[in-house]
Design goal:
Length: about 375
């Protein structure tokens, strides 16, 4: 089948229309097309129409196909048999107002219509191999680019936001879906809620819970810890952008200077793990069998220690630990102890206040360099 399709795409062909039977004379009959011809090869296709008279026309296209309306004309010779890997079907339909030609396609193609000097020959050229870009300025410093291109491997349909983070009034920032808690939310709803002018899907996330699968930092606070040292994008207060790999999350520092690195932020807590939870996870922490939980007020003061589900204080944290870290905490941390939660990402990326995790690095210094 592949060989057959390749030959069909590479060999140009010409289809001459066979005149349809002449309809009975009628005072209301519309003059029809005099001839239809189609030529195609691997990169282009051309449709040529012979008209009985010069008429206005209107061409339209969408992702499904292309159509041409010719008012005041009938079908005449009709549509020729037509088969092509990209342009998949051709029909002609006439009614009392005129003729509509329709061409289906496997993917959108640029097209251009030209007419002869006398208006009796109409030629439509389709590009099956192309690069097309349409830019739309959404605001000063924010451009939406729609790129469409196709080659022998098929089509690409790409939407790009080009953002100048140094433009006055422009701010680029990640947003947590779920209205403050982990959850799923349409991008349009997130735009409306934050009054943003544009947005795209960000990091990977759980389809069940909406929980980010990698790093998310908002206003200097880690909402979800990094995963597997994957790459992340960090955004500085001055619009400076940083891209790099990181597995840094947060650490707990005691009054005496002792410290312990968290194994995750808003992640499951297992044996010999210590995990930090904040309000993005929810109002309370689901009890984990064998875990010891420590609730911290916004200033780091320990306000509750229990084995059941701890409520998350406003702007505070809950630390859940099992095994060795639970023993370490029980030894040094009591009710009223004031501890500190540090975020090493703030020094890893100077001046960065927000960050969003992704997958592998794709390009470095203008060269393809995938580190997956």
């Amino acid at each position: 089948m592949t060989k057959h399709l390749l030959l069909a795409a590479l060999l140009p062909f010409l289809v001459a229309a066979t005149p349809a039977p002449t309809p009975p004379a009628s005072s209301t009959a519309l003059p029809g097309l005099m001839g239809v011809r189609v030529q195609a090869d691997a990169q282009t296709a051309q449709l040529t129409l012979q008209l009985p008279a010069a008429v206005p026309f209107q061409a339209r296209s969408d992702d499904q196909g292309w159509s041409l309306t010719l008012p005041g004309l009938g079908a005449g010779v009709g549509a020729p048999p037509f088969s092509d890997p990209v342009l998949t079907g051709f029909t002609a339909n006439a009614d009392s107002t005129g003729l509509t030609l329709h061409l289906n396609w496997a993917y959108w193609c640029p097209s251009a219509v030209t007419t002869s000097a006398d208006g009796l020959t109409l030629t439509v050229n389709f590009q099956k191999v192309y690069h097309d870009e349409q830019d739309e300025t959404l605001a000063p410093g924010v451009i939406h680019a729609h790129l469409r291109e196709a080659d022998e491997n098929g089509p690409l349909n790409i939407h790009v936001l080009r953002v100048d983070t140094h433009q006055a009034g422009v701010r680029l920032a990640p947003v947590l879906s779920g209205k403050g808690f982990f959850g799923r939310e349409p991008v349009e709803a997130m735009l409306a809620r934050t009054h943003a002018i544009a947005g795209v899907n960000g990091s990977y996330f759980s389809l069940k819970t909406g929980e980010p699968a990698g790093l998310l930092m908002l206003d200097g606070r880690v909402i979800a810890s990094p995963y597997a040292n994957r790459a992340a994008l960090a955004i500085g207060q001055d619009g400076q952008l940083y891209i790099g790999n990181t597995d840094l999350a947060s650490r707990l520092v005691l009054p005496g200077g002792q410290s312990y690195d968290f194994d995750g932020v808003n992640k499951p807590c297992g044996l010999n793990r210590m995990v930090l939870y904040n309000g993005a996870y929810g109002d309370s922490i689901t009890a984990v069998r064998g875990a010891r939980e420590f609730a911290l007020q916004s200033d780091g003061t320990v306000c509750a220690i229990q084995d059941a589900s701890c409520a998350v204080p406003v702007d505070g944290y809950v630390i859940a630990a099992q095994g060795q870290p639970a023993e370490w905490l029980s030894r040094y941390v009591k009710l009223g102890t004031r501890v500190q939660v540090e975020n090493p990402l703030l020094t890893y990326w100077p001046n960065a206040r927000s960050a969003l995790g992704g997958g592998p690095i794709l390009v470095q210094r203008g060269q393809i360099q995938i580190d997956a």
